[in-house]
Task: inverse folding
């Protein structure tokens, strides 16, 4: 049975348990302690501040998190803080409960933040299950590329119309930054069911870019991209674009805005890899790019800067400009202080001074997303004015993976309709290419 972690009942149970235990601690301590509430809050603030300094100092948590997160972060410290404030007035059983408040408070904090971002939709996701479709190893993918049967299946299973593979497959592969020198984390590739029966058939591809912080597995863990892709494939006889979920930041908390080596990696190294290993045509008509948050900004920017590579893009709640903490900091840290380079990577500036009738753009945002919603709508209007084919979507949610899931339900079929491949004879040359 799947237990939801983004529903209010699960959070309500955790909060109730925490309040009961903390209440028992406070009730026991007040019998012999004056100003307990004030002292407890002081010690809780001290503990939270120390933790925040460590997390920010090491770069594990960005500086621009919502301010109310700090209040939530205090919850694990309340029980231990009450024990310190009460001192000897707190008896042994109550001290045990005070220590128990630490994991209970941490659980509540995680659930509250998760309710905000919907990063772990279920308990299974929290426990490490980050995909629905089966995960293959690279060696198996090479066998598929060489038209070998899927391990454990027969030829009749692969080709029989009644026993056709109905789900796609996933594979985690390192895509080297041969030209860019960019050190990307492992990419995740979704293969449509048709790939398992006809791996030599040329197919289009969509490059997917996450935000910050992010992992490539977020697309399948949190947004359930593999399920959405399965539905698209089911409507087209098992065929759909290949989906390659790439790392554009080099680390979980990095933020390149797809500038510099990251831009070369996505527009040169990733295409070379996909063309060599999966037979994706080099023709721009076969290439799309999509992203969420920072990745949405990347998708728009890359498509505008490289219309010879991408023919369509999807922007899921991206910003209208590259942004790593304000304009001055962005220009200094990403562009070496050059305003001209910033303008050359600014979607708003590119749209204002260019014409893009050859591009198709999909713009989506959550109805409760505030600034990203307004910026996405403005970019869509500017793209339409620049001659682009534009589709827009406003869905439930804010800046969270609940919205991303709803958006992908619309964006992926749209991208599938936009992309195409030239009519060429399939080849089997890819079997000689080794995965690095």
Result:
């Amino acid at each position: 049975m799947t237990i939801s972690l983004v529903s209010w009942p699960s959070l309500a149970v955790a909060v109730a348990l925490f309040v009961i235990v903390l209440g028992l601690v406070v009730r026991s301590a007040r019998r012999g302690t004056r100003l307990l509430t004030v002292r407890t809050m002081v010690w809780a603030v001290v503990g939270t501040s120390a933790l925040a300094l460590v997390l920010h100092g090491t770069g594990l948590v960005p500086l621009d998190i919502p301010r109310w997160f700090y209040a939530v972060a205090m919850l694990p410290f309340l029980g231990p803080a009450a024990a310190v404030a009460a001192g000897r007035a707190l008896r042994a059983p109550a001290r045990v409960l005070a220590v128990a408040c630490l994991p209970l408070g941490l659980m509540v904090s995680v659930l509250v933040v998760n309710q905000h971002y919907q990063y772990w939709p279920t308990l299974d996701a929290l426990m490490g299950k980050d995909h629905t479709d089966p995960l293959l190893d690279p060696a198996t993918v090479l066998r598929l590329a060489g038209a070998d049967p899927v391990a454990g299946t027969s030829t009749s299973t692969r080709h029989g119309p009644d026993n056709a593979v109905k789900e796609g497959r996933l594979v985690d592969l390192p895509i080297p930054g041969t030209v860019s020198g960019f050190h990307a984390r492992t990419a995740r590739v979704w293969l449509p069911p048709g790939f398992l029966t006809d791996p030599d058939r040329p197919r289009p591809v969509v490059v997917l870019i996450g935000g910050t912080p992010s992992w490539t597995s977020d697309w399948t863990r949190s947004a359930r991209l593999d399920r959405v892709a399965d539905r698209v494939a089911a409507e087209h006889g098992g065929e759909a674009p290949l989906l390659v979920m790439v790392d554009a930041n080099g680390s979980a908390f990095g933020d390149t805005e797809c500038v510099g080596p990251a831009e070369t990696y996505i527009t040169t190294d990733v295409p070379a890899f996909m063309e060599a290993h999966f037979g994706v045509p080099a023709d721009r008509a076969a290439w799309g790019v999509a992203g969420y948050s920072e990745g949405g900004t990347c998708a728009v920017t890359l498509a505008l800067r490289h219309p010879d590579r991408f023919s369509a893009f999807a922007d899921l709640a991206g910003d209208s400009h590259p942004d790593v903490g304000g304009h001055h900091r962005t220009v200094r840290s990403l562009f070496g202080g050059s305003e001209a380079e910033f303008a050359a990577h600014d979607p708003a500036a590119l749209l204002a001074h260019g014409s893009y009738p050859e591009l198709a753009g999909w713009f989506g945002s959550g109805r409760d997303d505030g600034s990203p919603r307004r910026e996405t709508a403005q970019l869509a209007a500017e793209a339409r004015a620049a001659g682009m084919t534009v589709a827009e979507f406003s869905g439930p949610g804010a800046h969270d993976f609940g919205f991303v899931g709803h958006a992908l339900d619309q964006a992926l079929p749209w991208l599938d309709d936009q992309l195409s491949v030239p009519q060429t004879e399939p080849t089997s040359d890819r079997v000689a290419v080794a995965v690095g």
